Amino acid sequence: MTSSTRTLLHTVDGPNGSAALYEVVSPGQAQPSYEVEFGGTTTKFLSMGEAYIEAGQMSGTPT
């Protein structure tokens, strides 16, 4: 069994802190999913655009 791979794509820095945007590829998954880590919490998204916008909102730097 192969595990998921998680790759850091971008870090958005702002007045509220830093939000890290990751691409997650799982075996058998047709398309990658995306995760944003901010303040000790990880939020999952289906699209990179949505994740990137949310990372900007969390960090306080609109993207």
In what range is the share of β-strand residues? over 45%
Q: Mind telling me the C-alpha Rg? A: 12 Å
Describe the strand arrangement of the main beta sheet, using strand numbers: 1-2-3-4
So how many helices?
Answer: 1
The outline comes out as elongated
The span between the termini is: 37 Å
- Unreliable spans: none
Task: Determine the mean pLDDT.
Answer: 94
Question: Would you tell me the structural class of the helices and strands?
Answer: alpha+beta
The percent of residues in helical segments reads 10-25%
Descriptive labels:
63 residues; alpha+beta
Walk me through the topology.
Layout: E1 5-14, E2 17-25, E3 33-38, E4 41-45, H1 48-59
Antiparallel strand pairs: 1-2, 2-3, 3-4
Q: How would you characterize this protein structure?
A:
The structure is a single chain. By secondary structure, this protein is α+β, with helices and mostly antiparallel strands. Helices cover 19% and strands 48% of the residues. It has one helix at residues 48-59, and strands at residues 5-14, 17-25, 33-38, 41-45. Strands 1-2-3-4 form a four-stranded antiparallel beta sheet, covered by helices on one side. The mean pLDDT is 94.
In short:
It contains one helix and four strands; from the N terminus they run E-E-E-E-H. It is of the alpha+beta class and 63 residues long.
